[in-house]
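Duplicate of earlier report; UPF0370 protein DET57_101126 input re-posted below.
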Amino acid sequence: MDWLTKYWWILVLVFLVGVMINVIKDLSRVDHKKFLNNKPELPPHRDCNDKWDDEDDWPKNGQSKKK
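Output:
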């Protein structure tokens, strides 16, 4: 087990290379043109920020900020 303490980083590199190979294989199977042709419609955007941001902290043009 002395070799494991010296060369553990090689096992990590082999693992990472295996992960990268699997990622490349899986991404090559993805058909992006088919997805773009059949992509679902997005729902309308709802802005929830208007409920909590009612006050305006910035001074209007020509006005100085009140203290």
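The chain is about 50% helix and 0% strand.

Merging into the original ticket.
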